[in-house]
Design a protein that fits this description.
single chain, about 300 residues, alpha/beta, D-Maltodextrin-Binding Protein, domain 2
Length: about 300
């Protein structure tokens, strides 16, 4: 099925005949007739009842034309929105982002956005997702890029960007660093390093530990995932940590182990407030963030080699 077939069918239904439809579309009548015959053969039913005096929709044709019109209307809307975005020349966008973004390269994405829309002023704020969502509530931010937790309030809408994975981060030489199958329950007697209560990562750790049959003993708290990595590297405990932080950030040497089964990390997405319409500049930024996720995500980045 081709888009032009939908256009031809809708035009014949609208104008009441093949000749008038062809005239309005500025194509040969034979082309319209041939495409509609091909479509009918594909569908296995006639869409039009043809006589020497008139052309009328069959019951199947009425259903098909109704669907075709909705599809064509959606395409027209999409063209209009993309056209609006490409015409953006100025504006402001306030963006919030967490430190944990998986394989998503936010810096390069923002650099390309600036090159693409040099008239849009970008502002970036970093922090934990809870605080950033609060700023989104207050209208201080237009968009937030970060983990999309299952309990995301209904007043927010999220579009997925990339997936993230959780691993167990260990000090070098730790007994659990030896090869072999590792479960979170194997770390039940360990001291954990984590973010404070109320953070998404702390909730994930507590929930995963509870599922594994123990309560995680968190004696060291810090306000950033890179800080967790630093404390683990100093030998102060073990941590459930996003793989992108454990493997992709500078700091002291640590050992990264996969867990079986792996605790679930929420996907990384771009979040906006449902009740606050986005400016054209913010729409352009959201479209660009999603577009770059599809263009740049390396499938191997979700399962990089070198982690036992």
């Amino acid at each position: 099925m081709e888009l032009r077939q939908l256009v031809y069918v809708e035009a014949v239904a609208r104008y009441g005949g093949f000749t008038r439809a062809a005239e309005r579309l500025h194509v040969a009548q034979s082309a319209v007739s041939a495409q509609i015959r091909s479509l009918e053969a594909e569908l296995g039913v006639p869409l039009f009842a043809r006589t020497t005096r008139r052309v009328a929709l069959t019951p199947a044709g009425e259903l098909f034309v109704a669907r075709a019109r909705r599809i064509l209307a959606e395409l027209d809307g999409a063209r209009a929105e993309v056209g609006d975005i490409t015409q953006v020349v100025n504006g402001r966008v306030a963006l919030g982002a967490t430190a944990v973004l998986g394989p998503y390269d936010l810096a390069q994405t923002l650099a390309r956005f600036r090159d693409r829309f040099p008239g849009i002023a970008l502002r970036l704020r970093s922090g934990l997702v809870t605080g950033l969502l609060g700023a989104l509530d207050e209208g201080e931010l237009d968009l937030v890029v970060g983990p999309v937790h299952r309990d995301l309030p209904a007043r927010f809408e999220a579009l997925p960007l990339v997936e993230e994975q959780l691993v167990l981060a260990l000090p070098v030489g730790h007994p659990l660093a030896r090869p072999g199958r590792l479960t979170l329950a194997d770390a039940r007697d360990e001291t954990f390093v984590c973010l404070p209560q109320g953070s998404g990562l702390r909730w994930i750790l507590d929930d995963a530990a509870r599922t594994a049959g123990f309560a995680a003993r968190v004696l060291f708290e810090t306000h950033s995932p890179p800080g967790i990595r630093e404390l683990v590297g100093a030998g102060l405990g073990v941590a459930l940590l996003a793989r992108s932080v454990a493997e992709g950030m500078y700091g002291p040497a640590i050992v990264v182990r996969r867990l079986h089964p792996p605790p679930v990390h929420p996907p990384i997405g771009v979040i906006h407030h449902r009740d606050r319409p986005l400016s054209t500049a913010a729409q352009a930024a959201r479209h660009h963030l999603v577009e770059m996720a599809g263009r740049e995500q390396d499938p191997e980045a979700l399962t990089p080699a070198g982690t036992p």
